């Protein structure tokens, strides 16, 4: 999972947890508020009854006074003496029997009597509930327990509506939280994505580039600074390595040249024994391979130098290919290889003639070396609006599929014994690839092992 999604989910999860806690608190408070309002009203009614009790002399006048108040006539009211005997009850109490508790309340008592039978103005329900509380009063020096209950409608509808509002608000807040958190996490990670993008385009050929440092010296600033320091160390190591190869090649060039001259002088000697002559011939071939390796290393070092500049000009591709094929005419004839060149005369590319000639020479040389006797070499090309395609294929043993991605690596050889036999040092295709990349192109290899190999080259027209 992406970090952006993780941050968004963490923010959404945290926000929803807070919303859930807040919703539960609101739900509990509003549910309790329903009963608190009823209890307040009930307490006011009890206070009114206490006031009426002080204005009367006996129970009969007290009862008559209660019945004359419309607001009290709807209530369930019972009066008990000290022997827990009911001495008076309201008209509602005579129709409904409630089981009251010993505590003063308030508390809720449910009945099985339909609401419409007593209170037509209330919403019809199967059952009726009363909120009940008690108090102590004195009439003519006698203490009585007064129980008062007021009818209440079931809070289920209100609670259901409240729950629905909370659920809708919860879902809405979740959607808004996800949108905001996803946008916010994108804003947070945008500098990191930019650092990642810049770091990804820095490779061994662009090590001189650096990640720009931000104005705020925050964690991202320090991350960019650390990456730049790492690139500095890598560039220093690469530069030292290239410089070492260049210096070593230069230092080896002269001694190897002197050794070759000495060996050739000895080979010219007429009194040289045959067994020594064979050894010197082998030594001469080895020195020749070493000399080729040194030259290739120097060429590769020059091509990889950041200040390398090519001399670009218009080149007729067919003319260049025919020139190279003419140079290899004897090699083709020696192995009886058939050539098919179908490049049209008008096909042009824009590049450095000497380096592009070297590309063709290397690829044609490989097409001959690793071809069968009486084999075939095919060279063709085509162009599009912005690209030029060149294909060089040959019959032969081919390249195993596992080796295809590695054949352009430095010193990579499929069969070392065969490479030594043909004089290869494992740098030819590396140099070819580097020259093509300097021209803004690319090269890929295809092969059917045991049948054919093809090099696909793509150049930009300009």
Task: Tell me what you see in this structure.
By secondary structure, this protein is of the alpha+beta class. It has three domains: 3-160; 219-304, Helix Hairpins; 312-460, Heat Shock Protein 90. 54% of the residues lie in helices and 18% in strands. It is built from twelve helices and twelve strands. The protein has helices at 3-54, 59-67, 70-73, 91-95, 156-200, 219-268, 274-304, 317-327, 329-334, 353-369, 416-422, 428-438, and strands spanning 76-80, 86-89, 107-111, 128-139, 142-152, 312-316, 338-341, 348-352, 376-383, 387-395, 442-448, 452-460. The strands form three sheets. Strands 2-1-5-4-3 form a five-stranded antiparallel sheet. It has a five-stranded mixed sheet with strand order 7-9-10-12-11, with helices on one face. The relative contact order is 0.07. The mean pLDDT is 80.
How would you sum up this structure in a few lines?
With 462 residues, the chain is of the alpha+beta class.
End-to-end CA span: 43 Å
Q: Which band does the percent of strand residues land in?
A: 15-25%
Strand order of the largest sheet: 2-1-5-4-3
> SSE string, helix = H, strand = E?
HHHEEHEEEHHHEHHEEHEEHHEE
Structural class: alpha+beta
Number of domains: 3
Helix content: 40-55%
Mean pLDDT: 80
How many helical elements?
12
Rounded to the nearest angstrom, the radius of gyration is 50 Å
What spatial form do the alpha-carbon principal axes imply? Answer: rod-shaped
Residue runs with pLDDT of under 50 for 5 or more positions: none
Largest sheet: 5 strands, antiparallel
Count of extended strands: 12
């Amino acid at each position: 999972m992406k970090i952006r999604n993780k941050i968004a989910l963490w923010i959404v999860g945290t926000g929803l947890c807070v919303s859930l806690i807040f919703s539960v608190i609101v739900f509990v408070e509003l549910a309790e508020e329903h009963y608190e309002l009823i209890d307040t009203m009930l307490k006011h009614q009890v206070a009114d009854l206490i006031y009426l009790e002080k204005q009367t002399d006996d129970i009969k006048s007290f009862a008559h006074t209660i019945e004359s108040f419309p607001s009290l006539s709807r209530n369930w009211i019972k009066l008990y003496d000290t022997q827990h005997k009911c001495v008076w009850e309201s008209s509602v109490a005579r129709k409904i029997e409630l089981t009251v508790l010993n505590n003063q309340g308030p508390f809720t008592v449910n009945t099985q009597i339909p609401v419409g039978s007593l209170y037509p103005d209330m919403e019809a329900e199967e059952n009726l509930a009363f909120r009940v509380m008690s108090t102590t009063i004195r009439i003519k020096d006698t203490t009585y327990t007064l129980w008062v209950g007021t009818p209440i409608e079931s809070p289920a509808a209100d609670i259901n509506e409240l729950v629905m509002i909370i659920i809708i608000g919860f879902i809405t807040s979740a959607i808004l939280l996800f949108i905001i958190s996803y946008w916010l996490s994108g804003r947070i990670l945008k500098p990191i994505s930019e650092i990642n993008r810049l770091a990804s385009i820095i490779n061994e050929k662009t090590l001189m580039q650096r990640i720009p440092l931000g104005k705020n010296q925050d964690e991202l600033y320090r991350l960019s600074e650390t990456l730049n320091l790492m690139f500095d160390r890598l560039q220093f190591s690469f530069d030292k390595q290239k410089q070492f190869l260049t210096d070593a090649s230069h230092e080896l060039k002269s001694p190897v040249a002197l050794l070759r001259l000495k060996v050739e002088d000895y080979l010219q000697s007429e009194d040289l024994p045959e067994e020594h002559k064979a050894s010197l011939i082998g030594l001469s071939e080895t020195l020749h391979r070493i000399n080729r390796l040194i030259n290739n290393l120097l060429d590769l070092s020059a091509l990889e130098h950041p200040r390398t500049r090519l001399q670009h000009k218009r080149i007729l591709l067919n003319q260049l290919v025919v020139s190279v094929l003419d140079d290899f005419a004897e090699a083709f004839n020696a192995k009886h290889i058939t050539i098919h060149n179908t490049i049209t005369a008008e096909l042009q590319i824009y590049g450095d003639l000497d380096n592009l000639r070297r590309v063709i020479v290397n690829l044609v040389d490989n097409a001959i070396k690793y071809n069968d006797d009486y084999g075939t070499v095919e060279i063709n090309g085509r162009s599009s609006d912005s690209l030029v395609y060149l294909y060089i294929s040959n019959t032969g043993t081919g390249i195993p599929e596992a080796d295809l991605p590695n054949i352009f690596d430095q010193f990579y050889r499929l069969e070392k014994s065969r490479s030594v036999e043909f004089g290869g040092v494992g740098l030819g295709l590396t140099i070819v690839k580097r020259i093509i990349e300097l021209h803004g192109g690319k090269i890929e290899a295809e092969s059917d092992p045991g049948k054919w190999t093809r090099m696909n080259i793509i150049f930009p027209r300009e």
